[in-house]
Amino acid sequence: MTGNGEKRRGRRPALDPTHRRRLAARIAKMVLVDRLEQKEILQQLQKSEPALGHIDASTVSRLYRFALDTGIVRVHIDENAPFKPPRVETLERELVAAYQLQSAIVADASGHEEALASSLADDRLHQALGQLCADYLDTIVRQNEIVALSSGRAVFYACESLFNRHIFDKRNVRGVKVFSLNGNIAAEVWSMESPDARRAMDADISAAWLARAFPDAELIRLSLPVAVNTPEMVHEWLTVGPGRWISPQVWEEKVRQGNPHMVQAHPDDVCVPTLALVGIGGVRQQSGHRFIVGLHEPMLANLQPELGEMIELIAQYTSGPDRLFSCAVGDLCNRLFITLEARRFLPSDALKKLEYCVHTINEKLLSITFEQLFLVPKVVVVAGGATKIEAIRSVLEWQLMGWKQPLVHDLCTDRETAIRLLEAKRNAGRRG
């Protein structure tokens, strides 16, 4: 029998109450935010604080429960959050046939005129598309895949959804590399999660989420601005450092060499992506496009005054009940293009002004070119909503746009967008 004045042998030292709360909060963050497994949590704790060498798995579980029970962690449940929508297979088959796609994913989700009036509805539409796109990515990403991403909400939600699918059971696909196709804007949009939550739309952020869905994926962050001051500076930024990952000259050289990513001479060798996940945006004042919501961000200052002039010009012809079309300028990987409808209906002088603005902006962007996308074997587009119909159609109608080959192989969109794309194809056939 141990005396009252003696310590029990083998007893672990008690945690100070303040230290206990701090440690519980730290563990809760690792579980809920960092999505670490119990073994990883133990390793991090013991590495950062050697005094916690006595901590075991049961202590981690008790401290996490303590965080839940004492209000350190507060749970918000949104019963109106969108569920993963079913697919509309008939529309998928029609899209593949009409636009000669390799595959199509159509979400049975609405969000068109409603999305224009409600940022919440628009965000839910993007999340629904992201969920179905994540399902598709889960079936096509292979060993040693080189995945490249553009900016955008739908791309972000697809990456986040794939990560959530593999939080505790990462998909056993190894050797994956993930990198961004364009520089960062630092623009954010309102999220459906709460009235105060915001979502960043930069490709570097989406790439970080996607890389964490695979056990040993390598993440290459470009950490570049969206644009620079002059066209000459673009070449300088893409000649050294992370910028080489989106350099047109480097891509062309790698393709001539057969894109030798399996055996590299140096760990920092650039690889041309084998799979690209990109969004298509519609630049218009009523939309949540990153160039609109980030108009006054410092990183977009290099695109002024042409960006402001372009947006004013667009507003003149795409606003009001008598408008002939709704989207004059679209974007793919932050690179702008004039839509088919704008080319058809804009007065010649307005079209020339718009062409000048788009050309001047594109010359200063740190982003891949459309010609670079031709070099990617598999390009998956995830995009939908009322503000993007004409931009999506323009990309799909690559011959009418004057491009030498298709930019898109697979399309993930919503039901209403699919219906309008098919109607546009039929109407064009009648006019032709």
Discrete helix count = 17
Helix and strand content put the structural class at: alpha/beta
The 3D shape can be described as: globular
| Low-confidence regions | 1-10
How much of the polypeptide forms β-strand, as a percent range? Answer: 5-15%
Describe the structure.
The protein is α/β, with parallel strands linked by helices. The chain folds into two domains: 53 residues; 343 residues, Rossmann fold. The chain has 17 helices and twelve strands. The N terminus is likely disordered.
Describe what is shown at a glance:
The chain has 432 residues and is of the alpha/beta class. 43% of the residues lie in helices and 11% in strands.
